[in-house]
Automatic annotation (TrEMBL):
UniProt source species: Umezawaea endophytica
Catalytic activity, reaction form: chorismate = prephenate
Pfam families associated with the record: CM_1
PROSITE patterns: CHORISMATE_MUT_1 (PS51167)
Database matches in Gene3D superfamilies: RutC-like
The entry's keywords: Amino-acid biosynthesis, Aromatic amino acid biosynthesis, Isomerase
GO molecular function: chorismate mutase activity
Name of the protein in question: chorismate mutase
Binding site for prephenate: 7, 89, 107
InterPro entries: Chorismate_mutase_AroH, RutC-like_sf
Amino acid sequence: MAVRAIRGATQIDADDRDQVLEATAELVRELLARNGLTSDEVISVILTATPDVVSEFPAYAARKAGLDDVPLLSATEIAVPGAMPRVIRLMAHVETDLTRAEVRHVYLRGAAALRTDLKQL
Ligand SMILES: C=C(O[C@@H]1C=C(C(=O)O)C=C[C@H]1O)C(=O)O
């Protein structure tokens, strides 16, 4: 069993609380499913939102999505001029037998355009 880091991101259409809740839940769900994980194997998750997203804490959304006993933290992504708007990102540390090469990073919706270099299944 090793500790691995998994990245993910998604994009919402507007800074709307329901969209933050729903898109973050989808991101958490896909991260767990694509990597064969349960919440018991998640050590911690840091979530960021671009500065234009203030309607809800992504960490709250992740807890509501099932990570209820996982340490979570929300933070703001830096405001790089011209960067993609309304993006919620996550970095999860997990315990898994997956090798680093087997880990599936999860880029959903418009955020898929951020990392076209990553293999996605
Ligand atoms: C490209 C992304 O956005 C930014 C760039 C990153 C990178 O180059 O690794 C990571 C997070 C963000 O600061 C991303 O989320 O993957």
